[in-house]
Each structure stands twice: as structure tokens, then as C-alpha cells.
Amino acid sequence: MITESRIEKRDDEYFRVTSYFTSHTGTVSLKVEEGQRVEEGDVLYTITRLDLIKKRICEITEGTVRNVNMEIDNRFCGYFVHVMDLEHRLTPEEAQIHEEEAYYTFVYAPQGAQYYTTPNPGMPPLIGVGDIIDSGHVIAIAMVMKKRREITYEGKRGRVAKIYFLNGQQVAEKEKLFGIVLKPISIRKKRTDEKTD
User: Fold this and answer.
1) Predicted local distance difference test score (pLDDT) of residue 170
2) What is d(CA 22, CA 48) in angstroms, rounded to the nearest whole number?
3) CA distance to 97, 133, 156, 161, per residue, from 107 (Å)
4) How far apart are CA 100 and CA 133, in angstroms?
5) How far apart are CA 135 and CA 70, in angstroms?
6) Reading across the β-sheet that carries 138-144, which strands appear in turn?
7) What is the pLDDT of residue 187?
8) Residue 180's pLDDT is what?
9) What is the pLDDT of residue 5?
10) Taking the mean position of all CA atoms in its chain, how far away is CA 63?
11) Which domains, ranges and CATH numbers included, belong to the chain?
12) Angle 117-118-119 from CA coordinates, rounded to 5°
């Protein structure tokens, strides 16, 4: 299954819109209709190829079906054809996280590996939420097949706002590791009405 996800803001509310595309050629049979509410586990559509039927199942907790491509129902389709969108209204907590993350610079996993925040068991973490980091700072350890690789920060000076993995967790390539808020050096300007001696 191929999906693309984006966040849209409408009337002070946020929605996650997930677009579904065909992942291979086959005959598509739609199982939902425009405006229908769906829940996790509901079948959205099937795609049949060489007498094999593959179900495409809703993977979010709940949502509303939008932009259904009725032209492809019960027709043979090619690869990467838009099937439909699922729209999910973000909870207040999800919306707050989205607004906070708008200010983040992300550090992504350079490879699939187990990632650690500590250099060795029992030692303090390399960094924590709230720490200020500069380019060249070691921020994590990646372990692949018992080979250890230090992950260094290569961005501008910033504050660690969020860590997206637990110590020792397997993380896929290009998934978020850290959210950094860039921290400019502030220089206090002298007010023009201040007296100088």
C-alpha cells in the first residue's frame, strides 16, 4: 500500500489527510463511499491481480472518506493511481504537537539500526530534552550487526525539544530521531531613549 500524508488547517482546526494509491496493477473494487466514516480495520478497497485479492485496510483510529476516485471502481488500474483520501481531525493534543513541531528542525535516522541515547549501559545519556547542542555534538549511538556508529549533529546551534525513540529502540532509515529548536544568539539592543554617560 502506498500512502502520502499531510496536515491541513481549516477554520482553526487541523486535519491529517492520508492519500491512498495503488501499489501495483490490478482491478480495483471500492468498498467505501464519499463521506463515509471508517474505523481502524475497515476494508477501504480491494485490488485483484492474477486471481489474488489484496485488501487495503484503514490503519488510523477513525476518519472520513474523501475524494474517492469513482472512475477506477471495478476497472483495471496501473501503478500509483490515486484511490481515495482519508481525513482525520486532530485531537487538541495532536494539534498542539503539530504546532510545536512547526518550529523544529529534525534529525533523521541515517540508516535502519538500534539507536541509543547512552554511550554504554548505566552511563548518563549523551543528550536530553532541553540541552543545547552545537554542530559536531554526538547525539546518539547506532548499532547495526554489533557495529557501533556515533551519530553527530550537523546543524546550527539549537535546543533539543523532543526525542522520538526510546533507548535501544529499532528505528527505520529516515524516521525522526530528534526535534531541535534552533537557538539564535540574542543580542540586547540598546534602547534609543536610554541615557549614555
Assistant:
1) 94
2) 11
3) 17, 12, 12, 11
4) 19
5) 51
6) 147-152, 138-144, 113-116, 169-171
7) 44
8) 94
9) 86
10) 18
11) 2-91 (2.40.50.100), 100-182 (2.40.50.100)
12) 125
Q: DSSP class of residue 167? A: T
Identify the pLDDT of residue 94: 87
What cell does 132 get?
Answer: 543545547
Q: Which residues of the chain have pLDDT under 50?
A: 185-192, 194-197
Listed in sequence order, the residues at least 6 apart from 115 whose beta carbon sits closer than 8 Å to its beta carbon are 109, 140, 141, 142, 143, 151, 165, 167, 168, 169, 170, 171, 177
CA atoms lying within 13 Å on the CB side of residue 12:
0
Pairing of strands 82-89, 62-66: antiparallel
Residue identified by cell 502506498 is 2
* CA-wise closest residue to 137 among 154, 122, 123, 121: 154
The length of the chain is 197
